[in-house]
Amino acid sequence: MDEALIGAMLASTLRVSTPLIFCALAGLLSERSGVVDIGLEGKMLLSAFAAGACGAAYGSMTLAILAAMGVAVALSWVHGLACVSHKGDQVVSGVAINIIAAGLSAVLGTAWFHQGGQTPPVSDAVRIQALWPGLADAVRGLPVIGPVLGDGILSHNALVYLALLLVPLVWWGLFKTRFGLRLRAVGENPQMVDAAGVSVMRLRYTALTLNGILCGLAGSYLVLAQSASFSQNMSAGRGYMALAALIFGRWHPVKALWACLLFGFLDAAAIRLQGVHLPGVGEVPVQAIQALPYVLTVVLLAGFIGKSIPPKALGIPYSKER
């Protein structure tokens, strides 16, 4: 296969997978603590709007990312208030967050910027640029491995590498630290954690806070790295894909990473296949190609949601025994 094509596909796969990885890790932390998070889509969408609005208004990348993380953390705390503090239905709360985020981003975007729910494009100074452009250009000319290294690996921005770095860090934090042991325990047997003198509520709120930070990074990536502005429903179901990757990966960060990369590869392949003629079939319909990642999401959920074993206390509100 052409090395340039391999490099281009690898680059596209990593770029498309980055918000999925952030959201999958966010959902993993929340659900390992026993809190179902259907609201990944809404948090990513509203944080993307916050990044676009703040970046366009103030011209600061730092403020845009902080605003995105702040909005996502606030939504996570609202979810915690409803489900952890007041023991509400976690699925209903997550769906409500998705609905609120879709409506609020459209209404605020129309009211503030008068562009049909979109934000003005952010400047190049606000956008997240490639981390090593000079190195990528230098390596790209090498024979055989040059396009793969230069285009596929070294041409990305800092958030792509951060998403990949967070996978082993989350694995280490979950399985090699006291905090991770307690977090996993509270998702399996909160009564035991409470009996040991550790606050179940505090652990779950901590997990939701980390969840919000990661969702904020995913949302800011959509605006500051992939697109130049926010548009309505630009998350396009990526939160649900991340949830499917999380379930397919059986609540394990490394396995969830591979599922996210699979979704990213299919999305990248769908772009490449547009306009391609197949023998005996003709030109592949664009709609069929664009639907591939979503069809895979449904297939994986239908095939693996019954086989994957979630944390035992997932979705069960905890009431402290008196």
Explain what this protein looks like in three dimensions.
The protein has 322 residues and is an all-alpha fold. It has one domain. Helices cover 70% and strands 1% of the residues. The protein contains 14 helices and 2 strands. Strands 1-2 form a two-stranded antiparallel ribbon. Strand 1 (277-278) and strand 2 (282-283) form a beta hairpin. Helix 2 (40-58) packs across helix 10 (200-226). It is globular, with a radius of gyration of 20 Å. 45% of the residues are buried.
List the helices and strands and how they pair.
Elements: H1 3-32, H2 40-58, H3 61-85, H4 90-113, H5 133-140, H6 146-153, H7 158-176, H8 178-188, H9 190-195, H10 200-226, H11 238-248, H12 253-273, E1 277-278, E2 282-283, H13 286-290, H14 292-304
Antiparallel strand pairs: 1-2
